[in-house]
Q: What sequence folds into this?
């Protein structure tokens, strides 16, 4: 077994559009356990720390957007990954602080990749149908770049177990993260469940 914890934020667009319930439902129905949850309007420092402006992050943000433009035969209008990454980060911090968000910790087998799968690709327009981003938004890199704002993609989800640990510690105290027995624990993880009747 590889039980993991992961952090999800329902971003301001997800809350303001009334999709909190729709989003939580998708995590509950796959069998994830909610172990922490709260609504808050982030302080600048938390929003700033949440998106750590590392070389790797700036390059990732730049490369993903550039590849999408090029796959459509369009030229990407930015050439400097630091400039683009810095702009995206500034916009993201402002976006995250603009209105209340819902933060939660989800726990379960391979919770980090499982939640990423349910959330879908970064750009809603190319996120697969059935994913949160794919089903709830038509936003795209060209639209968001032309409006000088980050993508409105409803949800943040940790990318790796290390990122999850950092982010959970950033948004929650240890006391706010709960341990409890869930009815699904047995059905999903107990090898003694569903044995033949003697
Ligand atoms: O959220 P995800 O892990 O899928 O993507 P990321 O590369 O970690 O970027 C974090 C967030 O920055 C995204 O969810 C978008 O809201 C925003 N972003 C953007 O607006 N434009 C980009 N070119 C890249 C990211
Ligand atoms: Mg990310």
A:
């Amino acid at each position: 077994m590889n039980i993991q914890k992961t952090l999800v934020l329902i971003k301001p667009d997800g809350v303001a559009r009334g999709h909190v319930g729709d989003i939580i439902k998708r995590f509950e129905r796959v069998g994830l356990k909610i172990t922490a949850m709260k609504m808050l309007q982030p302080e600048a420092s938390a929003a700033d720390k949440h998106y750590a402006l590392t070389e790797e992050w700036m390059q990732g943000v730049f490369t993903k957007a550039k590849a999408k433009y090029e796959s459509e035969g369009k030229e990407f209008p930015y050439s400097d990954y630091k400039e683009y990454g810095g702009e995206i980060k500034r916009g993201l911090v402002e976006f995250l602080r603009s209105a209340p968000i819902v933060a939660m910790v989800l726990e379960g087998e391979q919770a980090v990749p499982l939640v990423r799968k349910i959330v879908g690709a970064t750009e809603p327009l190319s996120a697969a149908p059935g994913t949160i981003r794919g089903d709830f938004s038509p936003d795209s890199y060209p639209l968001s770049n032309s409006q000088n704002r980050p993508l409105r993609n409803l949800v943040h989800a940790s990318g790796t177990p290390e990122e999850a640990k950092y982010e959970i510690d950033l948004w929650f105290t240890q006391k706010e993260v709960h341990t409890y027995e869930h009815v699904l624990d047995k059905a999903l993880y107990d090898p003694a469940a569903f044995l033949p009747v003697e």
